[in-house]
Design brief:
Number of helices: 6
Number of domains: 1
Largest sheet: 8 strands, mixed
Radius of gyration: 16 Å
Number of strands: 10
Strand content: 15-25%
Strand order of the largest sheet: 2-1-3-4-10-9-8-6
Structural class: alpha/beta
Helix content: 25-40%
Amino acid sequence: MLVYVGFAQPDEWVQWAHAYAHHARRFEQAAGGRVCLTVPFQHFTPALLRRLQPDAIILSGFARSFQDYEVRDFYPVADCIEQAEEIPILALCGSHQLLGFLFNGALRSSPRLYDEPIRARRPGEPILNPDYHPEHYMERGFFELTLHEEDPLFEGCRRPPIVYESHYCEIKTLPEGFRLLASTPECRIQTMRHETRPLIGLQFHPEDYSERFPDGRRILENFLRLP
C-alpha cells in the first residue's frame, strides 16, 4: 500500500479532492497497481503509520502559504517522517520545503513558518498566477533540470529531464545529511536525497507529467522501486 498525504486544509479539501484522486491513480499506475490511500495531513500520525505499515509515503504540495498553517499542525507529520526511517518517502513541492524547515531546525523552533520566495519578479517578467503572490518570480510550466550527479531516480529520463513546476518558493539552505541532485537556473534545490535514508524531496511535481513530457512518471516509477 502507498499512502498519499494531502496538505489541503479542511475548508479546501473538497476543492482538491479531484486532484488528489487523479494523483493517487497515477501513483498506483507507477507502482504497478498497488493501492494508494489518500490521508489528510491532520490525521497522519505515528499511530496511523504503525497501523497502515505502507510500502511508501508521498507527501503532497501545498495550495496555501506556510504562514496560513499553525506550525503545531505539522508536528504529527514531522514525527512520522522522523520515525519512518526505513520507509521510502517522497516529498513534493511544498512538502519538499517542509523537509527543509524540518531538517534545518526551523519547524520545531519557530512559532510560525513563512514562505521563502525565490526572488522578486523583475519588470517585464510574466505574472503566471495573479491570485498567488504575483509580486514574486514563479516557475510554472515544464522546465529542464540540471543534474549534479547521476542518480537512479532519473534513470530512463531524457537528458536533461523535463518536469512540471508550479512554485514561487524554495529551500534556501540544503539540510545537513542531504545530497543535492538537481537544480534549475532560478531554483538551486530542485531535488535532494538523504544520504542514509530513502527520503527524497522534489521541488517540482512529477505527478503532473504529460504524454509529451513523461519524465515525471519515470521518476515516480524509479522512486516506487526503492526497497
